[in-house]
Amino acid sequence: MPESSPSSPDAPLQGGRIERVNVAEEMKNCFLDYSMSVIISRALPDVRDGLKPSQRRILYSMHELGLAPNRKHLKCAKIVGETMGNYHPHGDQAIYPTLVHMAQAWAMREPLVDGQGNFGSIEGDPPAAMRYTEARLSPLGALLMQDMEKDTVDFVPNYDETRKEPVVFPAAFPNLLVNGSTGIAVGMATNIPPHNLKEAIDAVCALIERPDLSIEELLSYIPGPDFPTGGVIVGTSGIREYFATGKGSIRIRGRLHIEESKTGRPLVIVDDIPFNVNRAMLVSRIGELITNKVLTDVTDVRDESDENTRIVLELKKEADPRVVVNNLYRLSALESVFAVNMLAIDGGRPRTLNLKELIECYLRHRREVVVRRTRFDLKKAEERAEILEAYLIALANLDDFLEVIRNSENRAEAKIRLRGYEFTKEQVEHFGIVIRNPARLHNGRYRLSDAQVDAILDLRLYQLTGLERRSIGEEYNQWREKIRELSELLGSEQKIMQVVKEELQAIREKHGDARRSEIMEEEEEVSLEDYITNECVIITMSHEGLIKRTSLTNYRSQRRGGRGVTGMVPQGMEGTDSRDFVEHLFTAATHDYLVFFTTEGRAHAVRVYEVPDMGRATRGRSIANLLELQPQEKVAAMVRIPFRRDDGGEDASWRSGGYLFFSTASGLVKKTALEEFRNIRRGGIMALGIEPGDRLIDVKLTQGSDEVVLVTRQGMSIRFSEKEVRPMGRQARGVRGIELEEGDEVVSVVVASSGATLLVAGENGLGKRTRFDEYRCQARGGKGIITMRRTENTGEVVGALSVCEEDEIMLITQNGLLVRIRVQEIPVVGRNTQGVRLIRLAEGDRLVALARVYPEDDREPELPA
């Protein structure tokens, strides 16, 4: 067989072979390995101690060098060399900047390293070379490694397997939450803001006491980030967002105030700058704006900072400081955005965490640390108690043991002979020993262990004195008590968490300080409605849930009996659902609130300006794009809550003292205070308990003393005072409003008002107005009286409204036709009549709903000019 050619793929290569591989697949696998290495071992912090591997190795090297907070500083070059040689072989250019960062008070909310020398400045000046600077652990840096020698964390071999390093630190305080972290990995990045130590510990302790705390409740303990450079955080919406989702953005402004110079000129003084902003570059940027005549009211800028920031801007005498400040925020880094992404390593995998999840991860870690430390202490206590038991036995049998030792040729023989001694349980108890572990008894007798025999053989003569014998007994009793306490601690989850809480509170009291960053509340923010014209619009929604808003001017007034204009694409047109038709129509101002009530009894709220603005003939957008509806939900009613501000400029729309009056198809009614709906979540809240087979028909806004009229499909009605319905909570189902005949149901709820009339319309286009005084007030729950005489001409009643002479109404047909008519054109007749024709219907069409159109001069609150 011929030898293989050297160029052959199967040619042997010094014990190996050349193999064919797919280059693309090989590159993919190599890049994935590299990516995971960067993510896990370099760029992202561990959620338990908040440290990246490089930071952890530097701090551990300082710990091994004995650089405690009460020891003298050591050259940074020595620290870097120790770290690089033992744990982190990546070069001093990777290690020294990390060490410097942990010592910079403007970069870390609670520095972990106490530096001595030039460690840079907030102006961006570089630190001195590591041969000139010195460092030691700060008190909080040392606390991260407290109890590490008690087997509280796992250790793994270092890069050359010559020693071991910790996988994570015990972390006596939530470092990730307190100091935050920043890192860029492959395909992902983390940017966690720092928080106040006191507030972070308060939140952790609160979650220990109440594990079911919501993120909203945690906000009362941690109102937001606390940056080392101070500043002002604008608004709380970004804070709430990243607390709930782990992602969000925060606007930070420099803190400033206005002074007056000796010459009478106004001065703007910058006291704090935003986090991660270079002070020198900020001053330079402001100088450029002055030079380029962008800030025309500013004549000079000076940096008078020492260890505290003080940037002075001198203005012209006639300048308005508020205008200058707004321009500074707009044009310079005096206002910046901090994009939050709370990504950390949890269980060996990168994970985006919200505030509660981050605290829970830390608590699980801290609980494990306390449990492992307690087990370690218990083991040591039991080992010491075992030795003391040996001393007590030896002192009680001193003559016999001395005889054995004297008659033994060597230590090994003495050890064997002493191991042969056995004692009964009664004898041991007589020696003052309490047998804690029944496994120590062999066939009911107590034997000495190897450790105890060694301790007896090592017993010194001075320990045989009476004083020493008493001290041994006292020490043994102390260790017994210690063992009991540790055993009880391990057996109680509540006590373990109490220890975690007490240790955190001790750190809070000793190392906590006041908040540096101010949080500007929501009311101080510019509201979105300030940029939106408050105008009157019509809200329409179809049977299939298509919603839109349209300007009121798109609907011209017509005379009674007209053919109308198209308010939606008529049925049967190409691209439309022939079964769809307009079912709800509402008039509101763009600043108002719209509260949607579903047939399932849930409430959803949006602002009118959030509803899509579309043309008169368009179909609208699906309500599912606006509300987070459940699959079985369908909108049954809409209520306009007028937008109001109180004297302080706050939103007072929900504090009117009014009620929401509910009615279901089966005749049940309920009223609930409007204020109970002031905090409607995006996913909606429960507004009414619905019985099986029933559904919500309508909801009205009332004042608590109104009279309401229920109108049924078969033309019956009942009028009663809403005082007969006591206020109920949102979960209540209500009480009986009207007793219905079989097959009948409620179609409308009307609030009676003086000077108004009740307009009732049938499905065949006939309708009429009747004075409210023809409807006598009855007791709630009766059968009621006739409100419209039903015939083949009228059909079933489709709805009813309370209207005045100057009102206009909108009639909606099944085919999407809308007719706007004046109420004064509809005659006032008696209750038991058919009425007149309101709308001429095409064949196959029918009236499905009617709604009042609010005149623009009847708005509340007043529309802006």
What this model shows, in words?
The chain is of the alpha+beta class and 865 residues long. It folds into four domains: 51-170, Topoisomerase II, domain 5 (Alpha-Beta Complex); 255-333, Gyrase A, domain 2 (2-Layer Sandwich), CATH 3.30.1360.40; 366-490, Topoisomerase, domain 3 (Orthogonal Bundle), CATH 1.10.268; 528-858, 6 Propeller (Neuraminidase). The protein is 27% helix and 24% strand. The chain contains 18 helices and 44 strands. The strands form 13 sheets. A four-stranded mixed sheet has the order 14-9-8-20. The protein has a four-stranded antiparallel sheet with strand order 10-11-13-12, with helices on one face. A hairpin with a 3-residue loop joins strand 29 and strand 30 (668-673). The protein is extended, with a radius of gyration of 40 Å. Mean pLDDT is 84; it is low at 1-7, 523-528, 569-579 and 855-865.
User: Can you give the helix content as a percent range?
Assistant: 25-40%
Report the CATH architecture of the largest domain.
6 Propeller
Task: Work out the count of structural domains.
Answer: 4
Dominant shape: extended
Largest sheet: 4 strands, mixed
From the N-terminal CA to the C-terminal CA, the straight-line distance is: 103 Å
